[in-house]
Design goal:
This protein is of the alpha/beta class and about 750 residues long. It contains 18 helices and 26 strands.
Length: about 750
């Protein structure tokens, strides 16, 4: 078996200025024999004596800079071991110790560690190389120390060879919690992870986000710096600068607290497993090692104050690393803790609710400017990185808002001033319809009423006007599925029935006063009143039925506006809506053509002329409606269609019935049978005379052209001859006219004209 022999000998120096050689015993700070020996590593001296030149030989220099605080820690270890030996705790077993001064130097600590690992009861201090150290008996059973994490890591890597337990009283580097690399390491202080976490928590609690970091240039400082940087970044704290100082600096103004003394015994067998399971109490608090070998202790938060030129250290709170909270003991320290928030340590002022932070890539995240949240966005906390978006369908928010506001639901309400005006016009139209119905009922047997198609036709038309005015009420108020389906269907069918009745009347008037035999024969074949009305109206009923079955109008929430929700009726199918209106327009155009041809009827009974005007009003209203309806948006969209319905309905009502009511009420002398026949006779005579005169004028013109003698006698003869011819022609035309009138009048009476 190969042996690794490391003799602890010194090499003498040939230089006169070299320090004297040291023996292995010179490195021992304190020693005492015992059945079980415990090793100790303490940095009793601050540093090794530096050499002007680089070392030329592998020798250990002398140590300088005595540290009284560390010396007291070594004495505490000795005192604890002696108390155990003087107590009945270990009957027949004496604890020994072998304590070394590391001089705050890894090299010295490694030399001491080699001596710890040397074989027990061996004449020479050697460390054997073995594949299995289970039966190997080293000089010491466990090691207390070292203090600095950098030294501890180097020592622990050597002690891992034999899994010798190592308990540190001061090393806090986070990496030492890694049990794969440091399986036999334990410590009585928390890991730097909790220390840096507590510091980050304290900074956040104080409201700071712009800080500087000073760390030592060793494993402890560098690892803590990296961990602290990550934790501060997670809390949105920016690091203004990082300063790394040389390690192992002394400062007489800093008092280092003495760590708790090791109080429990160390057993010889399975020492490492036992240490991991040790639990002890102190002043009512229970302590133990966790799975990472870290002690479940916390930290003291201390405040350094300079009073009258002297630095004082006051304990403010205790950090509970398990619950991540600060425990404050009294009100005075609580006030001191609260005063930390008054210290300003920020790069930028905090952004108030309703604002967000705006940073650039070249800036620290803690250096920013505050900008207002845009519309439909909000922020409800200070220093938010971005504004939150409101639900655009149900909520909205103004600029620099701290919360979202619920959108108001709007529709053409009954209390709206425009709605009240339109309803008033609709009610006025209904009153006109009722008044006209009463007037026509009281004058049932007058020629005016009979010439309007009779009371039944008038009632049907007036009922249609009533339904048209009533349909406007379905456009007002909160939309419902029923009202959305009813309003267009009711208007479309009732208005179609009205136009169908007026179309029948126009056709009847044209048939009654037409003297063209060919046109009369065509109109006689076409004139089927009941069939015309039912067919025209039935087509519209089919259109509306198909519309309601396949694409019925329904209530829809229009959320495109930023602050309100428009509750409106979605027509379901634009094609069906356009087909319904287009069909009414076709009927109105046919009615307009028939009425236009009969516009020159007797003045007091010229219904065709007024029907023409009514259709023109309808066309103008609905042609204007198309672009206005397409460009109008919001709750007043139904009002546009109401206005067009009222205009077209009033136009047809006024042009159809108001002239007749005027004759009935104000021209009663013309509303008699004799006056009616006289008017018909005068119209027929005038029409026939005009036709005869046209023929006579044509014959006179031809006769004048044939005259060639310019003498006065010739002129007199020609004039006399033309006069005779004119008289004969007029008499013939009058006879024919009388005959035609006598044939026409009975037919007129039969047709109720």
């Amino acid at each position: 078996m190969a042996l690794l022999i490391i003799p602890m000998t010194c090499f003498g120096s040939t230089l006169a200025i070299s320090p004297p050689c040291q023996t292995p015993d010179d490195f021992v700070a304190a020693t005492s024999p015992g059945h079980i020996t415990i090793g100790g590593l303490f940095a009793i001296h601050e540093k090794m004596l530096s050499s002007e030149d680089y070392p030329r030989r592998p020798e250990i220099q002398k140590c300088v800079g005595f540290e009284i605080s560390i010396f007291l820690q070594a004495l505490a270890m000795i005192h604890s071991i002696e108390m155990i030996n003087n107590s009945p705790l270990l009957s027949g077993v004496t604890l020994g110790y072998e304590i070394y001064d590391t001089c705050t130097e890894v090299t010295v600590a490694m030399a001491a560690t080699l001596r710890f690992l040397s074989k027990l009861n061996c004449s020479r201090e050697i460390v054997e190389f073995k594949c299995d150290y289970s039966s190997y008996m080293p000089r010491v059973k466990a090691v207390i120390g070292a203090g600095y994490s950098e030294i501890t890591m180097a020592v622990s890597r050597m002690l891992n060879l034999q899994l010798m337990p190592q308990v540190s009283y001061e090393s806090t580097a986070e990496i030492l919690s890694d049990k794969i690399r440091f399986p036999s390491f334990l410590r009585t202080v928390p890991s730097d992870f909790y220390q840096t976490k507590a510091m980050a928590h304290l900074i956040q609690k104080s409201g700071w986000n712009w800080i500087g970091i000073i760390a030592t240039d060793d494993d402890y400082g560098r690892l803590a710096l990296n961990t602290f940087t990550v934790q501060t970044a997670a809390n949105n704290v920016c690091i203004a600068f990082k300063e790394v100082l040389p390690a192992f600096l002394s400062d007489n103004t800093i008092e280092v607290r003495i760590n708790e003394t090791l109080e429990k015994i160390i057993a010889e067998a399975q020492l490492l497993d036992v240490l991991k399971n040790v639990t002890f109490t102190d002043e009512g608090n229970s302590f133990h090692f966790d799975a990472n070998g870290d002690m479940n202790t916390g930290y003291d938060v201390v405040l350094w104050k300079e009073i009258d030129g002297h630095m004082t250290i006051t304990k403010m709170a205790q950090y509970d690393l398990k619950n991540d909270v600060f425990i404050i003991t009294d009100q005075e320290t609580k006030n001191e803790f609260r005063n930390l928030k008054q210290i300003q340590s920020k790069c930028s002022k905090e952004c108030s609710p309703g604002q967000m932070k705006k940073t650039t890539r070249s800036q620290h995240i803690c250096c920013y400017e505050c900008v207002n949240c845009p519309e439909n966005h909000y922020s409800n906390q200070t220093d938010m990185d971005h504004c939150l978006l409101c639900n655009n369908e149900t909520h909205w928010a103004p600029v620099r808002s701290t919360r979202c506001f619920e959108k108001e639901v709007e529709y053409l309400n009954w209390n709206d001033s425009l709605a009240i005006l339109l309803l008033s016009l609709s009610l006025l139209g209904i009153l006109f319809v009722l008044a006209i119905g009463i007037i026509f009922t009281r004058n049932l047997n007058t020629p005016i009423v009979k010439s309007s198609g009779g009371l039944l036709v008038c009632y049907v038309i007036l009922l249609c006007h009533f339904l048209n005015f009533a349909s406007t009420g379905f456009f007002i108020g909160e939309p419902q599925d029923f009202t959305c389906k009813t309003r267009q269907t009711l208007f479309g069918v009732s208005f179609t029935l009205c136009i169908s009745c007026i179309l029948m009347k126009s056709l009847k008037i044209l048939l009654a006063f037409s003297f063209d035999p060919k046109l009369q024969n065509f109109l006689k074949c076409l004139y089927k009143p009941i069939l015309i009305i039912f067919t025209c109206t039935g087509i519209q009923v089919v259109i509306c039925t198909i519309w309601l079955i396949f694409a019925a109008p329904a209530v829809e929430e229009n959320v495109s506006l930023p602050r309100v929700i428009i509750l409106e009726c979605e027509e379901g199918s634009v094609l069906a809506f356009g087909t319904m209106l287009g069909y009414i327009a076709i009927l109105a155009f046919i009615c307009f053509i028939f009425a236009f041809k009969g516009r020159k009827l007797p003045e007091h009974y010229n219904e065709a002329k007024f029907i023409t005007f009514g259709m023109l009003i309808y066309f103008i209203a609905w042609i204007t409606f198309i672009p206005v309806y397409a460009t109008t948006f919001g709750k007043y969209l139904p009002a546009v269609e109401i206005i067009v319905i009222l205009i077209s309905n009033y136009g047809i009502l006024c042009c159809t019935f108001f002239p007749k009511c005027y004759v009935i009420l104000c021209k009663q002398e013309t509303n008699t049978k004799s006056a009616f026949l006289k008017m018909i006779y005068s119209y027929s005579s005038h029409a026939a005379s005009s036709l005869a005169i046209s023929h006579v004028s044509l014959d006179s013109t031809n006769s004048s052209i044939t005259m060639t003698d310019p003498s006065s006698g010739g002129r007199s003869a020609a004039w006399q001859e033309g006069k005779d011819l004119q008289a004969q022609a007029f008499a013939h035309i009058c006879r024919e006219n009388a005959t035609r009138v006598s044939k026409i009048l009975p037919r007129k009476r039969i047709s109720s004209i």
